[in-house]
Amino acid sequence: MSTTSLISSLFRAEIQSMSAYKVADAHGFIKLDAMENPYHWPPELTEHWLTSLRSCALNRYPDPEATRLIETLRGHDEIPESVAMLLGNGSDELIQLLLMALTPTQAVLAPAPSFVMYKQISQSLNLAYFAPSLHAEDFSLDIAHTLHLIQSHQPAIIFIAYPNNPTGNLFKAEDIHTIINASTGLVVIDEAYAPFANASFLPELQRYKNVLIMRTLSKLGLAGLRLGYLMGHTDIISQLNKIRLPYNINVLTQVTAEFALSHKHVFTEQTQLICQHRQWVFEQLQAHSELTVFPSAANFILFKTAAQQADRIHAHLKTQGVLIKNMHSQGGLMQDCLRVTIGTEAENKAFISALTTALTTIN
Ligand SMILES: *Cc1c(COP(=O)(O)O)cnc(C)c1O
Fold first, then answer.
1. CA distance 33 to 300
2. Among 37, 114, 115, which is best to mutate for testing ligand 1, by the most ligand atoms less than 8 A from CB?
3. What is the pLDDT of residues 322-363, one digit of tens each?
């Protein structure tokens, strides 16, 4: 039997028609494409960390409940004991877990554009996916259209990224409350960019039983660790916990995350610096009159080029050794858009100077 006939007889059609999530090869580039924290730790902190790793029992399975780490996260984010928590190998895994728990005939809703994994994983599970477009001018939620879709399709899960990726804005809290109140399913507020945003729905968990808050350590500065966490009502979290793989958070992640979060000040300083530099990059971008720059509450900035220039500018930046994210191919509201992650001061300067060169060369 050929692999082709094996595949077509065994695998679901929706999987056969998918393409794998591709990540650009960033080797040798100034890497400003993936919302990573650009800073390293002070050398003495790295030494302490290595010492803490010595006591890791790699021959043993990790604590399946990651009890100490959960306590550390509670302290870090001031999560009350009444709120239940579930850890994932990145928040990506939590999105997968949430969607895997649904009945196959159910629907999922998230605005467009938003984080690609909501759609990618929904499609892999053959769940109906509805994506009301954001308003083109300011990427705010189209409440009328969203409420209409909620009413007609009763989505089991609504994902709202707050701030939103790839647009960078915070939706109006009032609009999110409207959606929560209209929903008959779960509303997941994805706060991946909370460290940069100064806004959160965490206090609202007391009020809404159908709301879950999702966070990650990735954008804070630990993308390599893969640790996401979901917070919400005990009854809901307990159900999801049944399909979590028992040892999904490995021992190195548990020990390292506990260590890192006990040195919170390092990350606070780094995120503050990133927010300051975000302002500088924003102003530099705005100085180019041919660009439209969108305000951001995250660690990246989305901007729009003149019509049909995004691919050329993106490619030209690459020839100058700077890698940012080309959003243009996603189409829709992302036409002519590029997204840059805030890096170190030197990286930001290199980006702005390369962009200036690209814009003058192309015009
Ligand atoms: C980056 C990102 C995530 C993924 O986080 P991981 O914990 O690294 O899997 C989730 N949601 C949004 C909105 C993101 O931008």
1. 9
2. 115
3. 999 999 999 999 999 999 999 999 999 999 999 999 999 987
Q: Is the dihedral of CA 39, 42, 45, 46 positive or negative?
A: positive
Q: Cα separation of 355 and 349, whole Å?
A: 10
Report the distance separating Cα 85 and Cα 232, nearest Å: 7
Q: Which residues line ligand 1 (CB under 6 A)?
A: 35, 90-92, 115, 161, 165, 190, 192, 216, 218, 223, 228
Nearest to 285 by CA among 332, 340, 216: 340
Same domain, 65 and 197: yes
Beta-carbon contacts of 178 under 8 Å, excluding residues fewer than 6 positions away, are: 143, 147
User: In terms of residue numbers, what domain contains 281?
Assistant: 27-42+265-362
Which pTM was predicted?
0.97
Tokens of 317: 């930046």
For residue 296, how far is the Cα from the chain centroid?
14
Element (H, E) at 186: strand 186-190
* pLDDT tens per residue across span 96-136: 999 999 999 999 999 999 999 999 999 999 999 999 999 99
- 105 and 252 fall within a common domain: yes
Domain count, the chain: 2
- C-alpha torsion angle, residues 334, 337, 339, 340 (rounded to 10): -170
Mean pLDDT of the chain: 96
* CATH code (residue 228): 3.40.640.10
The total of other beta-carbon atoms located within 10 Å of residue 181's CB is 11
| Ligand 1 probe mutation, 21, 33, 37, 91, most atoms within 8 A of CB | 91
DSSP assignments along 53-104, one per residue: HHT--TTSPP-TT-HHHHHHHHHHHT--TTSEEEEESSHHHHHHHHHHTS-T
